[in-house]
Design goal:
Layout: H1 5-12, E1 18-20, E2 46-51, H2 61-68, H3 71-74, E3 77-82, H4 87-95, E4 101-105, H5 106-114, E5 119-124, E6 131-136, E7 151-154, H6 159-162, H7 164-170, E8 179-182, H8 185-193, E9 199-203, H9 207-215, E10 219-223, E11 234-239, H10 240-245, H11 247-266, H12 268-273, H13 285-296, H14 314-326
Parallel strand pairs: 2-3, 2-4, 7-8, 7-9
Antiparallel strand pairs: 1-3, 4-11, 5-11, 6-9, 6-10
Helix pairs in contact: 2-11, 9-13
Length: about 350
């Protein structure tokens, strides 16, 4: 099923503990599915583990919904989801074979591959960066230029922070124009809620809905992409070793994830509800729904609009690599084949 950004928006627009969701799936499928084809009836599905980039939040709704709807089982996959503690840890755990697949931020994937971690991206789903400066709508900050003289909470070393100078330059500002306060993820949210900072840098589909829910106030997002700064975000990865042994299962996994995203786009409310009670770290239901709706907005670029979720364009990969190299997150501009294997793309 294909969709456009317009149709997507109209359609609906964490302890690293493993928990099996196999009981939520309906039917039984077959073992390894070839090239993402549906599994034949009657055989047992293949156990597969997936580690998220963080504790479960709205972005992850398609995985839970895909289990609930039997999509993974149809593709021969008995999926177990594990919470994560940051994309770097997820990449490393995947590379070490602790899990079969990982869901991780592309800058962290590329940086770790450069350091020798043996993983590959199978496809990126969040293709427009969700990186944004997030402020209260009543803060008086309406444009990037309004950030001059303000204090923004950041997390040193993460992709939104490292690429912040590029965002500022595109907006006609210098790094010295904005004071940066380094805090961890929870500290950034607390600082905004207590008005100790004017805003924070992070993913607009993650922190923003949480802050709005806790404060009862609307948020404004100054998105990097609106300043022409874009790079790939979260997607599916696996280790070179696992892919070498399970190429057909990897294709089935990509097909199942893509189909699950399609289903979640078509029914955001049901997708969000599928996360209820699955983990104590999951945000309130209203936040999960807002997070998923914000995620839908960043699933494509101009080059992939109308294509299946997870289908990547070579030009977007090249642009991502150049932006991350310019920011110093990876060593140099190189061939995307070092990081990404297109053979697993959903058909």
């Amino acid at each position: 099923m294909k969709y456009s950004r317009r149709s997507v928006l109209s359609a609906g627009v964490a302890a690293v503990a493993a928990f099996s969701l196999s009981a939520c799936g309906g039917s039984t499928g077959s073992g390894t599915a070839a090239s993402g084809a549906a599994a034949s009836e009657g055989a047992a599905a293949k156990p597969v583990t997936l580690m998220l980039n963080w504790y479960p939040y709205g972005e992850h709704a398609p995985f839970y919904y895909g289990v609930e709807k039997g999509i993974f089982k149809k593709h021969g996959i008995d999926l177990t989801i594990k919470a994560g503690q940051g994309s770097t840890k997820t990449v490393q755990a995947t590379g070490q074979g602790q899990v079969d697949f990982g869901w991780a931020d592309t800058p962290a994937v590329l940086a770790n591959i450069d350091k020798g971690v043996k993983v590959k991206s199978l496809g990126v789903y969040l293709q427009t960066t969700p990186s944004a400066v997030q402020v209260f709508a009543d803060s008086g900050i309406k444009t990037p230029q309004d950030l001059k003289g303000k204090t923004i909470a950041v997390s040193a070393g993460d992709a939104p922070t490292v690429t912040f100078p590029i965002f500022l330059k595109a907006a006609g500002l210098s790094p010295d124009d904005v004071k940066q306060q380094n805090l961890d993820a929870a500290g950034k949210i607390a600082a905004v809620l207590s008005n100790k900072v004017d805003g924070l840098i992070g993913f607009a589909h993650d922190q923003g809905p949480t802050i709005a829910n806790k404060s009862g106030k609307a948020m404004t997002y100054l998105r990097y992409a609106d300043q022409g700064i874009n790079f790939y975000s979260n997607g599916l990865i696996s280790s070179d070793s696992y892919l070498g042994k399970n190429p057909d299962l990897a294709k089935a996994m990509m097909a199942a994830v893509s189909e699950s995203f399609e289903a979640a786009i078509q029914d955001p409310e049901a997708a969000a509800k599928s996360m209820d009670g699955k983990d104590p770290q999951i945000p309130p239901a209203a936040v999960v729904l807002d997070q998923w709706k914000e995620t839908i907005k960043v699933l494509t670029t101009e080059k992939t609009e109308g294509k299946k979720p997870g289908v990547n364009d070579p030009a977007d990969w090249d642009a991502t690599i150049k932006t991350l190299a310019d920011a110093g997150l990876i060593g140099s501009v190189g061939d995307a084949g070092k990081y990404y294997d297109s053979q697993y793309q959903p058909k």
